[in-house]
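Lab manual, section 2.4: Encoding a predicted structure.

Procedure: take the sequence of the chain (132 residues), apply the prediction step described in section 2.3, and record the output as structure tokens. A sample record is shown.
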Amino acid sequence: METVNLTPEHYQIANPNGITNKALYSRVKVYGIPLDVALTKPMRSGGLKNDDLTDPTIQYDSQGRIKYHPDYHHNHGKDYTTCELSYICKNYYKGNLRRLSLAVGRTERTLISITTKLRKAGIFEFYKNLED
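Recorded output:
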């Protein structure tokens, strides 16, 4: 992974997009998100909100993520397939994490965790670039 030195100019670009200095640093240095994405992709907002799913049995964590629910997270605890890892990596930065979570049947927190592990292992891009 290439070393990125964040400059005051980077922070000036990120702040109007609602990205705090701390969030930019975390995105680039901790999670390995490419600088161009980290600077321009707004903090999570939009997409599905807690009240969009009307099932009264759904519970949310302190970050607004859906907690494990057997009706929505059918792959919980199962091993990942190569096809599933590829799908997750290709779609992780494209849109709403909740929608991706529901599509693959895993919790949002699990998706954050697996993508972090893949990036740290240096294989996130490998799965992202796999052909279907």
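Check your result against the sample. The chain has two domains: 1-43, 47-132.
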